[in-house]
């Protein structure tokens, strides 16, 4: 470091860690003596106005990334020379050095790495950033588990005159997605491809598209097949899925986490410390983790989830605006229903009946056997956020609603409502549903089981063509190798169901914990279709959500469009 500066801003430089095409990285100390990493941008890049502007935007975005399995951005100088970025210092080797020294990972070590990197990508993508250069050298192995570094900032290199003149691209060829090599824009799906390459390298010791020179590597990536020989079966299928040539076929980072952990709608704040504790049990505990969100106060932005004092099961909030003079019946179509706020959180709890009368909360009396209920939570999908939104669009906000689709490798697609608290013991679920595609495919509502997994739960299913409905209980017994499914009630027809049009679907899940029973009912457009009292092995707690599924793949699949989803507490 004899020719290196001793100070950069308020940071005292201790040692040079490395140097790359963008700049030099130093180990440094801040004013309080805490160790940090300082990346100083090369002067030839900093002189370009386009680079400085893009660099400023990318660093600002990177600072918003949640601190899960990443080396978070702590500080930056975005205006004056020299430009620099300060991140957490991660004390540990990078994955590339570790594998070359110690050999490939196996079993739980490899699985923890896969989950950790997927967790980091989920946090990075959640901030609207694409990493663009995920590779073993950018995964550091600390005592707290894998940490992904250098996310997003590499994009600024795209603006440099040198890159424009020479036609070069940003990234590491062996870990670049084929569409990026073809000159297409890097999307989160490109990071998923890189995740597959990184996990394959960690598990085999060789990059899946390795070759002797860059042209050969580019050919392998765009035309060849990945070398996955020796990769553990526990991750191989997901790696193959991540390495799909079609970006639309690759799962999102959130979906990867769900498939790796067996849990839907994974909460990053819970996964990150689990990965760290499991992979490196002797290390210190994780700080700065974010607690799971609770129901938002009325002042929150539409779709936001904010911390609030603990209440009785669900947050106790003021009543909604006065209802219209003639509130439509639950069976009304979406076009006939009044406009609502994007997402509402209303009063539910032990004292709800008394407070509802005092505050003027509307109790709705519905016809055709649908029970009295008071709204607890609703979403018209007018604001994006909360529900799973996959990059391959199997689950996505679409056209002011929410769409779910099946695919060859995803014959069952489920999405739980983004409410962390359990619904009321006596719950009425409602949604507007329009389906198309495979006639025998089924879509509908779910009351999930006690573990809120994609397996356990009650499924209220309607055929796409309207020629049948089924109520099922699906559980995955502990120690079993496959799920146990029991049809509780079946109907060969659904009177009033309008195939290809919007139908109002409602399901009641009424738990009687004292009696140990669950009463289950299904309505379509206000008409009772199925009913069953589960006394055998009832699932008495869990979340609620939506489902689309089919049997064998027919190259067609089913498309389910959902809107105006409601969770209500039954009161009669």
UniProtKB/TrEMBL annotation:
Residues 11-266 form the Protein kinase domain. Coiled coil: none annotated. One of its GO terms (molecular function) is protein serine/threonine kinase activity. Keywords: ATP-binding, Kinase, Membrane, Nucleotide-binding, Serine/threonine-protein kinase, Transferase, Transmembrane, Transmembrane helix. It comes from the Bacteria. ATP binds at residue 39. The keyword Transcription does not apply. It holds the Pfam family Pkinase. This is Serine/threonine protein kinase.
